[in-house]
Amino acid sequence: MSHLLHKKPHTTLSRILPKFIQLWVSEKKTVSSLQAFRKRHGDAQRIHGTLASQPTTVDFAHYRSVLKNQAIVDEAEKLLKDFKPKTYDVSSHIKAIDQFEEKAVSKAEATAAEIDVELKALQATLANIEEARPFEDLTLEDVRKAHPQIAETVKTMVSKGKWTVPGYKEKFGDLNIM
């Protein structure tokens, strides 16, 4: 049981808590950016579905029967037949997307590993707190064993004739009636 006194659960918790909050905030940012990406992806899929369902052929016979100027219809038909879409080299974009994906996956794995470590530390701290003896059951000998510097500080203060703890009155006030 004395090994529990050597650990400082409040210091461990105060050291871990800011990191946990930082991870939690960054996780919220990651979740919100992921939700924004999913929304954009859903919008793009809807637009693609709408455009893919529309007919892609042009009925030039209909336009020849409606328009008097047949030369315009012939020219439009020739332009459409001669049209060749430009091809773009998207390998650099795909490479950038792959790099981004690798970074995102590695960051997610690192975050998961950090959260696992922090969670284990928090569970150990919680177990330490749950197993610790109540404050009322502690003796001065237990405190001296857990923190030998306290005994040495008290010994030094007594040898110098100091009977008050520096900063005590500022923090807790003066309890003297007289």
In total, how many beta strands? 0
What's the overall average pLDDT, rounded? 82
What overall form do the CA principal axes indicate?
A: rod-shaped
Distance between the termini: 42 Å
User: Largest sheet, described in full?
Assistant: none
What class, by secondary structure content?
mainly alpha
Poorly predicted runs are 1-10
Topology pattern, helix = H, strand = E: HHHHHHHH
Our estimate of the beta-strand percent is under 5%
* Cα Rg: 37 Å
Proportion of helical residues: over 70%
Number of helices: 8
Explain this structure:
It is found in: Mitochondrion inner membrane. This protein is mainly α and 178 residues long. Helix content is 76%, strand content 0%. It has helices spanning 2-6, 9-53, 60-66, 70-82, 91-131, 140-146, 148-159, 168-172. Helix 2 (9-53) runs antiparallel to helix 5. Mean pLDDT is 82; it is low at 1-10.
Annotate the secondary structure layout.
Layout lengths: L1 H5 L2 H45 L6 H7 L3 H13 L8 H41 L8 H7 L1 H12 L8 H5 L6
Helix pairs in contact: 2-5, 6-7
Subcellular location: Mitochondrion inner membrane
Protein name: ATP synthase subunit d, mitochondrial
GO molecular function: proton transmembrane transporter activity
